[in-house]
Structures are given as C-alpha cells and as structure tokens.
Amino acid sequence: MWKRVASLSPLISSKRSSTLNQAAYTFKRFESFTTETPAQGKVGMFFKGKTPFITFVLGGPGSGKGTQCEKIVENFGFTHLSAGDLLRREITSNTEDGAKILDTIKEGKIVHSEVTVKLIRKEIDSSDNYKFLIDGFPRSEENRIEFERITEAEPDIVLFFDCPEEEMVKRVLNRNQGRVDDNIDTIRKRLKTFESLNLPVVNYYSKRGKLYTINAVGTADEIFEQVRPVFAAHEELST
Ligand SMILES: Nc1ncnc2c1ncn2[C@@H]1O[C@H](COP(=O)(O)OP(=O)(O)OP(=O)(O)O)[C@@H](O)[C@H]1O
Ligand SMILES: Nc1ccn([C@H]2C[C@H](O)[C@@H](COP(=O)(O)O)O2)c(=O)n1
Ligand SMILES: [Mg+2]
User: Fold this and answer.
1) Contact residues of ligand 1, CB 6 A cut-off
2) How far does residue 49's CA lie from ligand 1's centre (Å)?
3) CA 214 to ligand 2 center in whole angstroms
4) Binding site annotation covers 138?
5) Does 239 map to a domain?
6) Range of the domain at 155
7) How far does Cα 227 stand from its chain's mean position?
8) Nearest alpha carbon, ligand 1 atom 3
9) Residue 199 domain-assigned?
10) How do strand 211-215 and strand 79-82 relate by DSSP bridges?
11) ipTM of the modeled complex
12) pTM above the 0.80 mark?
C-alpha cells in the first residue's frame, strides 16, 4: 500500500561550530512516497515488512550524541544503536576481530565498514522496533556506502551535533568512563579523523536536504529543546 507522507525540510547551517539559528526548523512540506509493506527483497526482509525510520546521529567525539540519544529514546521511543558501543562490545568478546577493533580505536581510526555494518544490521534484525537512532555512524563515506549496499536503505533524517573542538576535548577528558580512547593523544587523532572522514558525510546529507544541524553548546536540556521539534514534527506528520 502506498501512502503519501509529508516531511520536514531542515534549514541547514553551513557554518562550523556555529550557533544554530533557533528557528532552524522550517516546515516545508514536500512530497515523497513510502510504502508500509516494502516489496519482497532485502529491504522487506531486513525490516520485517515495516517501514523503518532511520536517524543517523553525527558529531565529533564528545559532542553529546549519546547523551541526546538517551533523551530521544525516552521521549520518542526509538531504539538506540551506538556503533562505538557495538564495537566495544565486540572487543570484550576476545575474538581476532575484537583485537583488531581495539587497535583501530586506540589509534582514533575507523573500523572496516563491513564489520560495523554487520553489527548494526544484526541489532536491527533482532529488534521489534522500527525506529532507530544509529549513533556515530556513518563515520566515513565508506561507512555510508557500505550501509546503503547492505541494507538498500537510506536514513530518513540525519542529526549533526555541531560543537567547538575545545568543548569536545573538555567533555571527553571529563567523561571518566574508562574508555581507552578518552586520552588527549587519541582525542587529537579522533578529531583529525572526524574532520577528514566524517565531515564529508555531513556535507553529503546537507546537500541531500536531510541534515539537521544542532548547536551542541549549552546544557543537555537546552540542546534537547532543539532536537525535540525535529522528532515531534515527524511524529505529527506520520499520524
Ligand atoms: N551539553 C552538555 N554539556 C556538558 N557536558 C555534556 C553535555 N552533553 C554531554 N555531556 C557530557 O560530555 C561527555 C560526552 O558526551 P557523550 O558521551 O554524549 O558524547 P558523544 O558524542 O557520544 O561522544 P563519543 O563520540 O566520544 O561517544 C559525557 O561525559 C557527557 O555526560
Ligand atoms: N562508525 C564507527 C563508529 C565508531 N568507530 C570506532 C572509532 C571511534 O573512535 C570509536 C568510538 O566511537 P564513539 O563511541 O565515539 O562513537 O569506535 C568506528 O570505527 N566506526
Ligand atoms: Mg557516544
């Protein structure tokens, strides 16, 4: 069954580390089509016949992705899949893959896309939910392309938490969760990786009109007040 849906069109902030215009969300209805029962094939099998709602959550290390995802889960019933958490879980499995992942993470580099996409896909496959926040993914164009190849799906929206570097460094150094990559040497490397590999992905989704840039400076509650309308509007439009 085909149904017409309306969608939000984000007003995109192109400035780095900018202060987001608080009125950054304009309703601009445009026509798109979706299906509640996807045709047989990878997408249908992958999502068990339900139309998925996929949000990619991007931002530098310590920009507050995980913190905001928790709030989105509480308020809008999404399932939170953190690519970093899935990889860290793999490290504890003591497999050969796990050892390689640990080395990559310590170096502030990106794990091979096939590994990460397989872990994400497995979580989606085993979930009863159809609304997903995929946090810290895609971290590179290679990640993005591999996700599209394996799932034949694209995100509905992409959040980008825009945060100045000095604030990200401060937050990560204060995090105190015992992460092997929360030290100043690895943080510097992660920031370089973010700049060179993740920002092209941000620009890609900006050009496709899917990006919501959030000013990630302020308290977590203040930031969530920018995030809330994005999801509230989508809920309203899909009912
Ligand atoms: N708005 C905020 N103001 C101050 N501290 C914050 C804010 N949001 C999150 N934090 C804190 O900053 C640290 C990093 O936040 P969080 O783990 O959510 O970031 P992240 O983007 O998921 O980072 P990473 O990419 O490294 O996983 C945490 O200790 C968190 O409690
Ligand atoms: N798509 C991804 C996501 C994460 N990683 C690795 C490299 C990151 O520095 C590390 C921690 O991720 P975070 O918890 O900060 O989101 O995990 C990756 O290789 N690919
Ligand atoms: Mg995180």
Assistant:
1) 59, 61-67, 84, 136, 171-172, 174-175, 218-220, 223
2) 35
3) 20
4) yes
5) no
6) 3-234
7) 13
8) 219
9) yes
10) unpaired
11) 0.99
12) yes
Q: Which two tokens stand for residue 211?
A: 């990006």
The span from the CA of 223 to the CA of 172, in Å, is 18
Dihedral angle of Cα 53, 17, 103, 123, to the nearest 10 degrees: -10
Q: Is 65 annotated for ligand binding?
A: yes
CATH number at residue 176: 3.40.50.300
Alpha-carbon gap, residue 116 to 101, rounded angstroms: 10
Instruction: Encode pLDDT of 151-189 as tens digits.
Output: 888 999 999 999 999 999 999 999 999 999 999 999 999
> Is there a binding annotation on residue 120?
no
Task: Find the angle CA(221)-CA(229)-CA(211) to the nearest 5 degrees.
Answer: 100
**Nearest to residue 182, comparing CAs of 194, 193, 170?**
170
Q: Is residue 105 within 6 Å of ligand 2 at its C-beta?
A: yes
HSE-CB for 205 with a 13 A CA cutoff: 29
Measuring CA to CA, which residue among 45, 127, 123, 110 is closest to residue 81? 123
| Domain count within the chain | 1
